[in-house]
Amino acid sequence: GQSLEQPSEVTAVEGAIVQINCTYQTSGFYGLSWYQQHDGGAPTFLSYNALDGLEETGRFSSFLSRSDSYGYLLLQELQMKDSASYFCAVRAPHSGGYQKVTFGTGTKLQVIP
Amino acid sequence: DAGVIQSPRHEVTEMGQEVTLRCKPISGHDYLFWYRQTMMRGLELLIYFNNNVPIDDSGMPEDRFSAKMPNASFSTLKIQPSEPRDSAVYFCASSPRQGSTDTQYFGPGTRLTVL
After folding, report:
1. How far from B83 is each of B15, B59, B79, B86, B93, CA to CA, in Å?
2. Which of A31, A39, B61, B104 is the most exposed place for a label (fewest CB within 10 A)?
3. Which of B55, B104, B108 sits opposite A96 (nearest CB)?
4. B30-81 pLDDT tens trace
5. Residues of A with CB below 8 A from B98's CB?
């Protein structure tokens, strides 16, 4: 099976940079995704890493190290609207030749003035 | 595209009643997922379908839960009989295919309260 670990809460100041870490244990691995969820809303896709390295999308970047079973989401120039929960999710092989995505428990980010 | 559509958005029912949640995935997506989210257990995958066929239902908590996908544009999650511990937000998500960008598109969710 798969298991993921991420911090439950992080607090950061508006305009600063914050890094949300995710470590995982899987039987096989295809990629790591990140999702954002505002209170009362649905998860929305942010990024996906299949290969080692940094992927940048505007103020958000995601990093993956397959050898360390580790990834992180980096949020720059934090804005109040970035206050939300952030989930990492790992895609891994599943029976029958399929793939399965397992979500972490989420990190609640609070951005303060 | 309208995105993933779920109904109802809110459901309040009494213990023992049957509850049916509905989902319309994004047209052309091959995969459909049902999730349950609670404060205690986080986001749990209940079941997923590929081309209308259930692939993995290992997350379905009990026999009281069942899911169907009679065609590519409609799926239901049924709880019979419902219990207070089933209270949660239930999300439906769809995905165009496996691999690649791994994007799942979530619906707005159904907030279920069982009294």
Report:
1. 5, 17, 9, 6, 24
2. A39
3. B55
4. 999 999 999 888 899 999 999 999 988 988 988 999 999 999 999 999 999 9
5. 98-99
